[in-house]
Design a protein that fits this description.
The protein is α/β, with parallel strands linked by helices. It has ten helices and seven strands. It has one domain: Rossmann fold, CATH 3.40.50.1000.
């Protein structure tokens, strides 16, 4: 019986990559998206890629960051799937290598219980190009899920994880139900449920 479900945010609970939306404001959408793809496919170290991408956002107004973060396109079926899992007594948590400006806002809309992500440093209302937080490294999700399992007294058998990219691999190592959602090949290889349609409700069908 499942007790804990951990979802990635970008390209899982949300349809797209938050940082790519930010970069588009600076005319750097394609450049940042290319780095994101390299990282999510496992060809580039996540920590290095995150620092590299965030540095390119230096000077962006934080008001723009907030506006974009509060108008992101959520994945089809996200609300319904989270609500159903919670109705079964499952704690639902979001881990994101992205940003609290997005995951914190989405928490009240999508209904998950907690979010762990990164924070874009700002000064005088503009991004400084620096970042810090809970999910900075390729190992961060695996580290955090073990801490949560210990706190909640939840086993690997009682844990579900769902993501799409290489930085989700570390949490896949600590869950018996591993869902690759419209994912890169590197993650599909470690999954025992693969969903290719952009509809999170497909998860509920798989769990029946």
């Amino acid at each position: 019986m499942l007790k804990l479900a951990v979802f990635d945010f970008d390209s899982t609970l949300m349809d797209g990559e938050t940082i790519d939306f930010f970069a588009e404001e600076l005319g750097l959408g394609k450049k940042v998206a290319a780095i994101t793809e390299e990282a999510m496919s496992g060809r580039l170290d996540f920590f290095e890629s995150l620092q590299q991408r965030v540095s390119l956002l230096k000077g962006l107004d934080y008001s723009v960051v907030e506006k974009i973060s509060q108008n992101l396109p959520y994945m089809k079926g996200a609300r319904e799937t989270i609500a159903e899992l919670k109705s079964r007594g499952i704690k639902v948590v979001c881990f994101s290598g992205g940003f609290r400006s997005a995951t914190g806002f989405a928490k009240n809309i999508l209904g998950y219980d907690a979010d762990f992500s990164n924070i874009l440093h700002q000064k005088d209302g503009k991004l400084t190009g620096l970042v810090g937080g809970d999910m900075m490294f390729s190992s961060s999700k695996g580290d955090m899920i073990q801490r949560l399992q210990n706190i909640l007294d939840v086993s690997e058998k009682e844990t579900l994880v769902c993501g799409d990219g290489a930085n989700d691999l570390s949490m896949f190592a600590h869950a018996s139900t591993r869902i690759a959602f419209c994912a890169r090949d590197i993650l599909k290889k470690e999954a025992n449920i693969i969903i290719e349609q952009k509809d999170l409700r497909k998860i509920l069908i798989e769990l029946k």
